[in-house]
Structure formats: structure tokens, C-alpha cells
Amino acid sequence: MAGRKFPTVLLLILNLLSFLPFLTISFSPDHPTDRRILVLLDDLALKSSHSIFFTSLQSRGFDLDFKLADDPSIAVKRYGQYLYDGLILFSPSTDRFGGSLDLEGVLDFVDSGHDLILAAETSASDLIRSVAAECGVDFDEDPSAMVIDHTGYAVSQIEGDHTLIAADDFVQSDVILGSTKIEAPVLFKGTGHSLNPDNSLVLKILSASSSAYSANPASKLSNPPLLTGSAISLVSVVQARNNARIIISGSLDLFSNRLFRSGVQKAGSSYKYEKSGNEQFVTELSKWVFHERGHLKAVNLKHNMVGGTDEPSMYRINDDLEFSVEIYEWTGSSWVPYVANDVQVQFYMMSPYVLKTLSTNEKGLYHTSFKVPDVYGVFQFKVEYQRLGYTGLSLSKQIPVRPFRHNEYERFITTAFPYYGASFSMMAGFFIFSIVYLYNK
Amino acid sequence: MGRSTTSKDAQALFHSLHSAYASTPTNLKIIDLYVMFAVVTAVIQVVYMAIVGSFPFNSFLSGVLSCVGTAVLAVCLRIQVNKENKEFKDLPPERAFADFVLCNLVLHLVIMNFLG
């Protein structure tokens, strides 16, 4: 009896082992949402003061690993494998991370395609500033400077110094901020930053109003502030070329329970919102940054002759061909067809000879047909799709184009019959002339 | 007055040319007729090309060049068999005609290849 039970148990264990990969599911090309996230905090009290944000992440299936920023056991990498898919740096005052993590380590983490949320504060440490600077964001050089807005501040009981501002200048992008409009202004209290103009990947998500400036609220303003108006960015994002996504916020309070739950009334407006826009803003932004939205994949790039189904190894000049590619968007749990009317294909050899907009069947298939140009050489089908907030698609497939073979040219062209006639009549004329010339005596 | 003089002069010129040409040997007249035929065919083709366009350009070229080549070869033959040309008095007319035939064969071979 025991001898028969043993194989059954073994089988059961083997079965469970085969499920193991599904249990430890993490970021992969087929399943691009992050799963394991390392959260580095200055103080473990942040865990409770920002619990709504963390709970919303956990309820969406993320596995958060909280550590103090100076914990000596921090390691993001083991045996060349990253242990985490995302990193949340809620440690604005940390001068150096514990364990093996350093500035280089954070940048390598991003360079290998992982995501990062970085929140700074006034008096942010040099380490946090240099991480931000590497991402194309320059915080105000004055460590005690805050963003002040005397017309766009949030009304509160005490008059205050107008550093709690109600910002509502969002980027117009449904993919980053979700399709539901954020009605209430976002409460922001912290330092402002400007974007490095040399970095084309960084993007302002939440800008300050034109009346804002960045200065130390406690001291008298002796010089004109360096950062003013809507050039101040409050929250910025980066979408790197390797599809790593980064959020940089000048305020850690932006994510806090206090501001999530707080009502907001913008100065000059009589309407008081019961709840600030922070929760919606942060939740939507975190969906984007952890690849629950706006992640595209392109598969099944196919081409064939019109009327054919096989993919030829080569085309002839002036052939008619059909091109198709399937594009899907990740929703956090499944791939759904991506629908857009601006996907284009290039038939490319040094420069695009053909540039055509693909039409879609709304089920993810994009197709078009065109004539191969009257030029032979080694061409490429290229799809370069870079849209705000979406992962970039960059596909190319090489295909040679050959000229006509000598026996593929048209024969007996009707237009050319007079020329044929002339040539043959010359031959006949030569024959008759020879006879007449030889026998005329 | 002036016009009638001009036309009279032209008539006289034409007449003298005609009478001078009448003394040309018959074999040379046959060659002249053959050259005329080739030139007219070439002109017809050029006019045709000007109307319909130059699309089968190789066909057009071979058509016209066959006419031009024929005319040139015939003129060469005419120079060589003309008794008054002292330059070729050592060359027998049979030899000249054999050269002409050979050149024509080569010409038409090339034309056939280029015709399309």
C-alpha cells in the first residue's frame, strides 16, 4: 500500500514543481508587467504614512520588498540576475545606499530595462540629485528651495507660505494618465526641477503654473529665482529607448496618505473638491511606469506577393506586394489589439523609397500593399513607431530586390511593330537588291 | 521678273543634273534607289517615334540603325564599284560586293539581337 502511494506523492510534487514558474512570474517579454519591487525608505514610518499607495500596488499584485535605504543587505542583483523588476526610491535624504547598491547600480538597473520611481524633497541628498541628473532632471540647486505659487496655492485654514500648491497642468496623454480625466488638482509640496534640454526622452507630466517660482520660503528673495513659471516641472517621466520607465517627483508628500485624503480648494476658485487628485494621478502614473499600460508588442511581420501566401526570399522590381504586422497592447493581464491609424511602414534602402500608412482591421492586424520601386538593391521593411507614452516599436526585416532577368522583359510590343517591320524590310531589301544588282546586265 | 528667273535657273539646274545623272551606269542607279529606300524608311521611323514616344527605345534604335547601316554600306559599295574612282581601280567589283554582303550579314545579326 505504502509502495503504491509513494509514486503518487512524487507525481504530485512534480506537478507542483511544474507550476512553480507561474508562481514566480515576473517581467518578461510575454508578460511585461513588473512583479517584484524593491522599496527603499529613509524611515520605516513612511510605510504607514504612504500606506494607501503601497496597498494599491500590493492589491494590483505587486510584491513589495521594503528596506531601509542604508540597510546593508540591499542587493538588486545576484549571480548576474536582477532580483527586482522595479525600484521605488522614497529616500530623499540618503547619502549612500546600504549593501552593494550605489549610483552606478541604480543606473545599471535602469539601463537593463527596469523601472524606477524617484521621489525627492527639499534638501535632497547629492546621491538622489545625481540619479535624477543622470535621468535628465535637474533639481533646484538651492537645497532649501521649494516651489511657491502665490496664485495657484491650495487654500488652507492658515495663510501659510503658499508652498502647498494645487497643480492641474497635466500632460495631455491618455496612455500615461489614464483615460479618465483628473478633475481635482494635485497637491504638491516640494522642490521643483527643470528638464535637461539635451535629453529628448524626459517629459514633463505635471508642470507648475506660470505664476510659480522656486525659492527658499523662509528667507527674503534677494535675487530673481532661477526656476520660474511653467518651466518648472513638478513630476517628470522618462521612457528610455530600452523601454525602462522612470518617474521623478520633486515631492515625496505627493504619494502620502495625508495629501491623498485631503480636500483641495485652489486659490481664487470657490469650488472645494472633497478629495485631491493625488490618488488618481499617482495610481495612473504607477500603472504606466510598471508597464500595466502603454506597452506594445509587434509580432508576425509578414510580407508576400499580391495573390500569394508564401514569403518570398527576394522581390523583383515593380512587383506588387502585401505587408502585414500585428500589434498588441498589454493591459496588465492580457494582450489586446492595439488600434491606431498612424502606424507606418517604410520600404527602406538608405532612405525610405515607400512610406505607407497601414490600415488596421481593429483586431490588431495592420496591413497594406504597395508596388516595389523601380530600383534594385537590398531593402528593408521598417516599422518605426514612437508615440508619447507607448513603448517604441522598431522592427526591420531585410529583403533583396532584383532587376528583371533578361528573359522577363516584354516581347513583341505593339508600339514597336514599325521598327520590326523596318528591320525586316531592310533584310528583304538587301536580298532583293543583291539579286537585282547581280542579274541586271 | 526675279522669281521667274529663279525658277528658270532652278529648272535649268535640275535639267542639267538630270541629264548628267542619265549617263550614270545602271548598277550605280540601282544602288542609289536602294539608298533612297533605306533613308526614307529611317525618316518614317523617326517621325513615328516623335509621335508615339521613345518607349521601346532599343527597338527604335535597331530599326533606324538598320536603315542607316544599310545606307552607309550601300554608299561604300557605290564608291568601290564606281569606275571613275581611281582609288579603287585595283579592287575588282566582285570583291567589293562580297565585302558588302559580309558586312550586311554582320549588321543584320546585330540588329536582330538588339531588336527586343
Automatic annotation (TrEMBL), chain A:
It is a single-pass type I membrane protein. One of its GO terms (biological process) is protein N-linked glycosylation via asparagine. Pfam families: OST48_MD, OST48_N. InterPro entries: DDOST_48_kDa_subunit, OST48_MD, OST48_N. Residues 1-26 form the signal peptide. Residues 36-289 form the OST48 N-terminal domain. Residues 303-441 form the OST48 middle domain. One of its GO terms (cellular component) is endoplasmic reticulum membrane. It is found in: Endoplasmic reticulum membrane; Membrane. The chain crosses the membrane at residues 417-439. Pathway: Protein modification; protein glycosylation. It comes from the Eukaryota. Keywords: Endoplasmic reticulum, Membrane, Signal, Transmembrane, Transmembrane helix. Subunit of the oligosaccharyl transferase (OST) complex that catalyzes the initial transfer of a defined glycan (Glc(3)Man(9)GlcNAc(2) in eukaryotes) from the lipid carrier dolichol-pyrophosphate to an asparagine residue within an Asn-X-Ser/Thr consensus motif in nascent polypeptide chains, the first step in protein N-glycosylation. N-glycosylation occurs cotranslationally and the complex associates with the Sec61 complex at the channel-forming translocon complex that mediates protein translocation across the endoplasmic reticulum (ER). Belongs to the DDOST 48 kDa subunit family. Component of the oligosaccharyltransferase (OST) complex. This is Dolichyl-diphosphooligosaccharide--protein glycosyltransferase 48 kDa subunit. It comes from Abeliophyllum distichum.
UniProtKB/TrEMBL annotation, chain B:
Keywords: Apoptosis, Endoplasmic reticulum, Membrane, Transmembrane, Transmembrane helix. It is a multi-pass membrane protein. It is found in: Endoplasmic reticulum membrane. Its main location: endoplasmic reticulum. Pfam families: DAD. Coiled coil: none annotated. The keyword Membrane applies. Pathway: Protein modification; protein glycosylation. Subunit of the oligosaccharyl transferase (OST) complex that catalyzes the initial transfer of a defined glycan (Glc(3)Man(9)GlcNAc(2) in eukaryotes) from the lipid carrier dolichol-pyrophosphate to an asparagine residue within an Asn-X-Ser/Thr consensus motif in nascent polypeptide chains, the first step in protein N-glycosylation. N-glycosylation occurs cotranslationally and the complex associates with the Sec61 complex at the channel-forming translocon complex that mediates protein translocation across the endoplasmic reticulum (ER). All subunits are required for a maximal enzyme activity. Component of the oligosaccharyltransferase (OST) complex. Belongs to the DAD/OST2 family. This is Dolichyl-diphosphooligosaccharide--protein glycosyltransferase subunit DAD1. It comes from Abeliophyllum distichum.
